[in-house]
Amino acid sequence: PKRNNNQALRISMLHERAWLLKIQALALHVSDISSSVYREACLAILSDAFGHCAENMKNASMFQSPGTPICTSSGLMNRNKVLELLEVVQFRCPDTSMKYPQLLSNLRVESKIEEILRNSATSEFGGVYYFSERGDRLIDLDAFHQKLIQMSQELHTQLSESEKGELKESFHRMLKWAWRYNKNLEEQAAQLHMLTSWSQIVEVAVSRRMSLLENRSQLLFE
């Protein structure tokens, strides 16, 4: 999925593809190709990844429907799948800068917001960050919300009614910004995971299993 359509699904699928590539790279790296079983498994992975038929490859591709032939008469499959995988990555990264809505300067709270976000501590230690299962440092929305509420209470007696309404709206937008910041950071990490895994399978294939592929010069050129 594209970033603007379903970002959460896109993040999940990037990680799934990354792990699949890692598993395939590991299989290529450790398999003993003197065994016919492991040799055919490596051939299947290489054929799927690079779109080139290897020697005596007659098994069905793991990415194709049963009964679909791998080889054409020229010995090539369709387009190189490794290159197709790069199209999944959007090289214009999502915005992960701390450019939050510029609506706070008139309310004398911008410096307070900056102080909260500059504190790198996690919510357990008085900050507003946490680490996800994948190791991404994200904004803890509940902790951030509590900080904003506390700030609002401290400023309550200093603001007019119109300023209170403006502050409430600004804080609401800050929470939306924090949610978007988290998603963009997660997507950036997912894209890096995908690219790292992509480079691993290419490196292993070229350094250890290139002899199993035909048309090696053309493959390297691509």
TrEMBL record:
One of its GO terms (cellular component) is nuclear pore. It is found in: Nucleus. Keywords: Nucleus, Transport. It comes from the Eukaryota. The keyword Nucleus applies. PANTHER family: NUCLEAR PORE COMPLEX PROTEIN NUP205 (PTHR31344:SF0). Belongs to the NUP186/NUP192/NUP205 family. This is Uncharacterized protein. It comes from Aegilops tauschii subsp. strangulata (Goatgrass). The lineage of its organism: Eukaryota, Viridiplantae, Streptophyta, Embryophyta, Tracheophyta.
